[in-house]
Amino acid sequence: MRIPALLTSLTLAGLLLSPTAHAATPFQAADLTRAAAYSQAHRGDAVLVWQAGREVFAQAQGSFDLNAPHVLASGSKTFGGLLAVALQDAGLLRLDERAADTLTEWRGDARRDITVRQLLNFTSGLLGNVGHPIPTLNRDLSGAALAAQAVAPAGTVFAYGNAHLAAFAELVRRRTGQEPEVALQARVLDALDVHPTWARDRAGHADLAGGARLSAREWGRVGQLLLQNGQWQGRAVLSAAGLGECRQGSAALSVYGLNLWLNVPTNGTLDSGDTVPVAALNLKGDRLMPSQPVSVFMAAGAGNQRLYAGTR
């Protein structure tokens, strides 16, 4: 028997699921206490652990409130993949359709070959980043992404950054007539009672790549939805097949799916042409978390935001 387990940590580095990942036993109190001590020693704000669908440990640290919104930084990127699955489930887009079918500005050059999937797994061939890293200092992130030229053929190189999701955000606007965070809220997050606040550029657009703020418990519910293959309180919020796509890496980088980091071997796909935040991920060897099963995955952001999910 495998027990689904989830660990959410805010401003915390290095916490993993128990090394006894396939055992059917619950987490031990001593292990949870050590995890919390590690967090506190590394200036953590919060540690939250769910197992078998329920919260088994929660600790706020310092002056932090577990129910207060916390910046997710690039942990926000996971919402792009969830939104894409929701729209594919609704028949409003296909992951393997060409983005230029909607982003018509791209039809006349190499960007015509970019698919929606490649925008989400960061292999579109665009430069990773556009504009300023602080969203409010940008006039229009989506406009900058649409103007960015391809620097590599689609599907060949991984480039981490905000450009791909800024372009995806404009695709969603044109396809649905809604802002992407509005569509995400209605199609996914309302069911979970999760309500992020968003940093925005000067055009008023939410930054899907790094602009979300959530409480630890809200982020935990997002992780639980992933563990439950899209099911929430007896309702299919997202399809299991669609979420399965999120846990598939690319030929350019096997350890990154649709805005989730995967604990599978790199299999030679990490090379000098890829732009990967290796230092932030602490990648050593061929997997992100060598002591953990390949089924473990995570969302991650600057400042050591981490959401780990898997079975034990």
UniProtKB/TrEMBL annotation:
What protein is this chain from?
A: Beta-lactamase-related domain-containing protein
Pfam families this protein is in? Beta-lactamase
Domain of life (superkingdom) = Bacteria
Which intervals hold domain Beta-lactamase-related? 33-219
Where is the secretion signal located?
1-23
Q: Which UniProt keywords apply?
A: Signal
